[in-house]
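To: structure subgroup
Subject: Chain for Friday's discussion

All,

I'm putting the inputs and outputs inline so they're searchable in the archive.
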Amino acid sequence: MTGCAERAPSKKKINEWPATGGETGDDQMIQVTRLNGKGFWINPHLIEFLEETPDTVVTLLTGKKVVVKEPAQKILEEIITYRRKLVEGGNEVVPIEIRGE
């Protein structure tokens, strides 16, 4: 390899759970956990609604349903935080309980 410097391998795992920083998509998605403990990212723009039956069921616009460990309230807070980061939801009506007032 002429003229190319080799990069040292990164010691940080990209698939670490829970992930931190923007390297895994958390600037575009929110983090949730399946009942078996496996974490994954979900696009909050695709969430149609949340149900607690008593497990939390996330229904996507595609009709796909995913059961997750997080309570619906926590997912709602994550969606609001995510949208505020995008400056889309800064003026959304947010219940007092979530705002912490």
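Points worth raising on Friday:
The radius of gyration is 17 Å.
The first strand starts at residue 30 and ends at 33.

D.
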